[in-house]
Amino acid sequence: MKGNFKGYPILLLVASLVAGNLYCKASWNALCSTSSVSVTEFSSPTPDSIGTTLKEVEVVSRLETKEVTAVMPLQIMTSAEIEKLGISDMADAVRRFSGVNIRDYGGLGGVKTVSVRNMGASHTAVSYDGAPVDNIEGGQVDIGRFSLNNLSRLSLAVGQDNDLLQCARLYSSAAVLGITTRQPDFKNGKNFSIETKIKAGSWGYVSPYLKWSQKITDKIIFSLDGDYTHSDGNYPFTIENGVETEKAHRSNSKIDNWHAEANLIIPFSSRHKLDLKGYFYQSKRGVPGAVTLYNPVSTETLWGRDAFVQMKYRGTLSNKWKIQFIGKYANGWSRERETGTQYAGGLWQAEYTQNEYFLSGAASYRPTDRLSFGLAQDVMFNKLSYTKKDCPFPSRVASYTSLTAKFRGDRYELTANLNGVATSESVKTGKAPDSFKCLNPSVGATWQPIEDVEWNLRAMYKKTDRLPTFNDLYYDRLGIRTLRPERADEYNVGTTWLSGSLGILDYCSITADGYYNYVNDKIVAMPSTHNWRMMNYGKVRMYGIDLNAFLSFGVGNDIHINLSGAYSWQKTCDITDKGASNYKAQLPYSPQHSGNCSITFSSRWIEAGYSLVGVGKCYYMVQNTASNILDGYVDQSISIGREFKFRQCGLTVRAEVLNLGNAQYEVIKYYPMPGRSFRASVLLNL
After folding, report:
1. Dist. CA 379–CA 374, nearest whole Å
2. DSSP characters over 545-593
3. In whole angstroms, what is the distance from residue 448 CA to residue 458 CA?
4. What is the 3-state secondary structure (H, E, C) of 119-135?
5. CB-based contact 27:39 (threshold 8 Å)
6. Residue 662 Ramachandran class (φ > 0 left, ψ -120 to 50 alpha, else beta)
7. Are 119 and 519 in contact, with CB atoms under 8 Å apart?
8. CB of 375 closer than 8 Å to CB of 360
9. Labelling 470: which of 247, 561, 576, 646 has CA 20 to 30 A away?
């Protein structure tokens, strides 16, 4: 199904079809009162009319109303939705959000980064259970290393989330991808739970998973989970070069990943809670290179290790005051090795080590029911070393300060934020870059024009600075220590509507946002006399539309159907030089049209899901010519599963078909993506 996907089918679908996933009917009053509810209804123990006793009924529903009532655009996806749709990895899940571009170099071993509204991956912050995840070396976080097995919720906020207690570091980014892990779940009065899963599929893919949760006391809970993933990744593909075609298999795509995570949850009381987390990830993967006709060879291997420990404390001091403290230490190590005659001795290798120390304190104060304030202060220290003899051993101390005010009226909400950033750097050799300071504002508003209709208008503006990475500043013969940060301005206007009951529908929501972004002092690699150098050369203008729709309805008492759709139209232009041939040309790898739609079916017998992701054509070079077109594609997936109950145990079996139409496509030129593949999984809960 390769071709130029123009997005119009998704545009038509979206009027009748993403913002979430409902798994049962719930009253409209419950919908309005909370965004996530777990309701337990207890009937009277008296017999009913036929002499039986009514049993306890538990209703659990994900009613993410804040997706459509938020001041700034917010999208949320739950683990249940991800499981039903047969989504295979974190990058596959994130690309279901509107306005997102995923850079994927193919296969499990390929690096996967996320750019929101074409701002660039370095403008997107990633948080893991509330603490930021950074990569000071390259600035782009590889989201492919995060597992879906222990995921509870995935969110994407343009601007920032509404949480007044979030870290100041997250306020300093243009968008935030939030990853929230699952809390332990104990059923039937047990003080422990065990969850084990095995998934296997095409191209030697196998991934076992185990999670153990234990109540140490009535309040203190410990959990440990881990998974391993292996695949040879040698999927078949077809490469074309004019009239010539060649069928081959992807090479150097073998991957072995290990991931483990330990959590200790200590609720001192209903108002005070401490979370301790240890995280470890290690991988060895072949790096699949660019494929050209008759030359698919790649010899690069990458070893990686990422580990961190973090502490998060949240406390409610009174009805007006809440506080949060986060402390984190992270260590990242990687080694690259490549063989070839272009290197002296036929071998090139390098090792990189990153160390990060992070402290954050935040407080929120609500003097009245309508007015609230938030203050957050973060301090971060980063250091990088690598094995080359010219390593300057750079380090950076950064301070982030955020002050937020929020006012809620009867049918409107106003929010304003002031974010300050100050940095200081030092090096062992040469001159360190100058210190940097900035103070950036953001404002937002939402208004409900009609009192009894859940229809809102919203608008926001935000200014951010993207600091140069250590690679930008210090990379051998490429980095420039006088680089300035990229400056970005974001504008958004939109409308949202939702209804808890509309004819046969249990729930329906629609959001539409138009945006304009402007980036100045873009950091790009430019050719110089003898080699390439990083420079502040570039002005980029981005504007577009994001549409999201979701509806849910039931058939009888046992069948529930959810439909969702998202569509994005984006125009991203280089406006640096009016005299250049590429002036106002679409930036490389920036498709104008993209979208997705999905349908999930739930009953007492079976669960099934179908999803489609479509991406339009784009250009892989700065010149927007026919010879530089990268064709669009449509990627379809289907999943089917069933849960079986055995006393106090649960067994879930699931089968998935990925890329159902066997589309042959590329996200990055010369990096072919996998065709049709099959996976099956068995999950056991004890």
Report:
1. 17
2. EEEEEEEEEEETTTEEEEEEEEEEEEEEEE-S-TTSTTTTPBPTT--SE
3. 9
4. CCHHHEEEEECCEEECC
5. no
6. left
7. yes
8. no
9. 576
pLDDT greater than 80 at residue 642: yes
The values of phi and psi at residue 161, to 5°, are -75, 170
Query: CB-based contacts of 324: which residues, under 8 Å, 6+ apart?
Result: 130, 165, 312, 313, 314, 315, 360, 361, 362, 363
Q: Beta-carbon neighbour count of residue 619 at 10 Å?
A: 22
Q: What is the pLDDT of residues 509-561, one digit of tens each?
A: 999 999 999 999 988 877 765 567 888 888 999 999 999 999 999 887 889 99
Q: What does the alpha-carbon distance between residue 540 and residue 546 come to, in Å, rounded to a whole number?
A: 19
Strands 221-231 and 629-630: unpaired
| Burial class of residue 425 (count of CB atoms within 10 Å of its CB; 0-12, 13-18, 19+) | buried
At 178-204, the pLDDT tens digits run 999 999 988 878 899 999 999 999 999
Helix (H, G, I), strand (E, B) or coil at 31: helix
Pairing status of strand 124-128 against strand 131-133:
antiparallel
Distance separating alpha carbons of residues 242 and 102, to the nearest angstrom: 27
Q: What contacts 604, CB < 8 A, 6 or more positions away? A: 558
| Identity at 170, one-letter amino acid code | L
Q: For the purposes of burial, counting CB atoms within 10 Å of the CB of 51, is it exposed (0-12), middle (13-18) or buried (19 or more)?
A: exposed
Average pLDDT over the chain reads 86
Look at 20-34, 113-127, 507-521 and tell me which has the smallest mean pLDDT: 20-34
550 neighbors 523 (Cβ within 8 angstroms): no
d(CA 104, CA 112) in angstroms, rounded, equals: 5
Strands 124-128 and 175-181: parallel
Q: Are 179 and 156 in contact (CB under 8 A)?
A: no
Q: Is 209 left (phi over 0), alpha (psi -120 to 50) or beta?
A: beta
Question: Which residue's structure tokens are 């750019």?
Answer: 115
Which structure tokens are listed for 427?
């090096």
CA distance 343 to 341: 5
E strands, 117-181, are: 124-128, 131-133, 151-158, 175-181
| pLDDT of amino acid 10 | 38
521 contacts 487 by C-beta, under 8 angstroms: yes
Under DSSP, is residue 474 helix (H, G, I), strand (E, B) or coil? helix
Give residue 345's Cα distance to chain centre.
41
- Identify the three-state secondary structure at position 470: helix
Confidence check: pLDDT of 50 > 70? no
d(CA 95, CA 146): 15
Q: What is the dihedral of CA 518, 524, 527, 533, to 10 degrees?
A: 140
Task: For residue 131, report the phi and psi dihedrals to the nearest 5 degrees.
Answer: -105, 135
Residues 6+ apart with CB under 8 A from 98: 18, 75, 546, 547, 548, 566, 567, 568, 595
Q: Identify the CATH class of 8-23+62-291+317-685.
A: mainly beta
Residue 24's contacts (CB-CB under 8 Å, 6 or more residues apart) are 59, 60, 61, 560
Give me the residue label for tokens 């009613």.
63
Q: What's the token pair of residue 326?
A: 């986060």
